[in-house]
Design goal:
The protein has 154 residues and is of the alpha+beta class. The chain has a domain at 117-154. Helices cover 25% and strands 12% of the residues. It contains three helices and five strands. The chain has a three-stranded mixed sheet. The chain has a two-stranded antiparallel sheet with strand order 4-5.
Length: 154
């Protein structure tokens, strides 16, 4: 049985250290990015040193960049930003969760990525949601799965 008197564990608010209720992302600062690159370079060097010399050398992807890396930021109930703002990536120098700016922040978060275009026909569900229409192959596979699950349905 858990000890109810123990303080909760997990992420803490970046402002007061209280239990986090909201998480959002921001770009790394120059120092944070340099640390991430150094960690990745050390990981690659270790992998190379441990690699089997009779096999081809391991290959690695590109090193982290500010454009493809984010840092998690946490806020408690008192220092949380709006959910709409929390859904976007913030600038490296964003001061949230600073008490002077809550529930806003002092940066202009990046816009949401554009939705990927979906090709093919769409169908409207009874709930009003529009979703891609299933292909003939998907419908046939679904029919087969029904027959296998319930032979009496054949």
């Amino acid at each position: 049985m858990p000890d109810l008197m123990k303080p909760p564990t997990g992420p803490r608010c970046g402002s007061c250290g209280g239990p986090a209720l909201v998480q959002w992302r921001r770009r790394p600062t120059d120092n944070e990015l340099a640390n991430l690159v150094a960690i990745e370079q050390a990981r690659q060097a270790e992998a190379l040193s441990l690699a089997d010399q009779s096999q081809p050398a391991p290959t690695f992807g590109p090193l982290p960049t500010a454009g493809d890396t984010t840092i998690a930021v946490f806020g408690c109930a008192e220092h949380a930003i709006h959910l709409e703002a929390a859904a976007r990536v913030h600038a490296a120098d964003c001061s949230a969760p600073h008490p002077d700016h809550v529930p806003d922040c002092d940066c202009e978060p990046e816009p949401h990525p554009a939705p990927e275009p979906r090709g093919g026909p769409m169908v409207t569900l009874p709930t009003g949601w529009r979703v891609p229409a299933p292909s003939v192959d998907e419908l046939q596979a679904f029919g087969q799965s029904i027959k296998q699950a319930d032979p009496a349905a054949s």
